[in-house]
Amino acid sequence: MDGEVVRPRLQPLAALSAEVARGLVGILTDIDDTLTLHGRIVPAAFDAMARARAAGLAIVPVTGRPAGWCDHVARMWPCEGVVGENGGLWFYMHEGKLVRAFAQSAEVRAHNAARLHTVREAVLREVPGCALASDQPYRELDLAVDFCEDVAALPDAAIDQILAVFARFGATAKASSIHVNGWFGEFDKLSGFFGLCSDLGLPSQAERWAYAGDSANDAPMFAHFPASVGVANVVRWLPRIPTPPAFVTEGEGGHGFAQLVDRILELRS
Length: 269
Ligand SMILES: [Mg+2]
Hints:
It contains eight helices and 15 strands.
């Protein structure tokens, strides 16, 4: 482990230091089961995003949700921009107009869409009980397979089976708390974050951002950011997260996110 800093993981929020909180330019946050609980945005979490911005912090949701959702989030939520489809795209407002940026060219996206169609047929044929995610028509780069949202919840073995089908076709796949998302290409939530920072001229150093998440598709973010935070329900997904978050909240979903914002604002005041 030469040269590698080994940090304690899963500490209570009380262990977050004022020095770290004061060095932040913003907070990155997953959406499903991090801002939401049981499928709905927790009002305190939405309010916390607005309060953080009013206190001078940037807010950027980073999600596996589709381009269609990101259009809405970038336009209407209290945020600087949004990273969607697990880093495949990032949308933001510039001089009152929506900018839509993608990790891949339109040609590459069209080519990959045809390849994903083949994967889709195989997944639906081989894994009983799963379905295309209801938000699939609004996606630009990935294929989302529902194992929990609008279908009866499938066992963990079925999630592994879906992941294995994507792998067999050479696709990247990540499980969120509700979908398995798969795509062709190298992007992930972290690379999408770098793309957005570059476009917006925001600093992208790891110590300048806190990250809040809850599941396996947040793993690259938990490993990268020293102030990585899991909301309480992250415990359910720890077996699929190689590097657990540095901190964990007491509250579940959006309640935990609101606790994180409260703690950061308190330490900065
Ligand atoms: Mg999530």
